[in-house]
Amino acid sequence: MISQELIKRFRLSHLKGYQIAQLAGLHPSTLSKLINRIEHPRKDDQRVIAVGRVLGLKRDECFETAAQIERACK
């Protein structure tokens, strides 16, 4: 699952969504599906990692850990 931090940085970015998509090498609709959790990428999905890189995140900051997901469900 995509991390809350990645989504937060996406929403607070000074860049437009299409600009982030372009810098990450994605189509804007693909980025939208990822950010809005319509698509559920694997933990090693290079598309998410590329978006995270554009937003200044490290690879491990792009995805929620099992503990974070469990806390969110409580």
Description:
This protein is mostly helical and 74 residues long. The chain has a single domain, classed as 434 Repressor (Amino-terminal Domain) (Orthogonal Bundle), CATH 1.10.260. Helix content is 57%, strand content 0%. The chain contains five helices and no strands. α2 packs across α3 and α2 packs across α4. The protein is globular and about 35 Å long. The model has no long low-confidence stretch (mean pLDDT 90).
Secondary structure topology:
Elements: H1 4-12, H2 17-24, H3 28-35, H4 46-54, H5 66-73
The overall pLDDT, averaged over residues, is 90
How would you spell out the order of helices and strands? HHHHH
Distance between the termini: 17 Å
The helix/strand class is mainly alpha
Q: Tell me about the biggest sheet? A: none
- CATH architecture designation: Orthogonal Bundle
| Shape category | globular
Question: Unreliable stretches, pLDDT < 50, 5 or more residues?
Answer: none
State the name of the first-level CATH class: Mainly Alpha
CATH superfamily: lambda repressor-like DNA-binding domains
Count of discrete domains: 1
Estimate the helix proportion, in percent.
55-70%
Number of helices in the DSSP assignment: 5
Rg for CA atoms: 12 Å
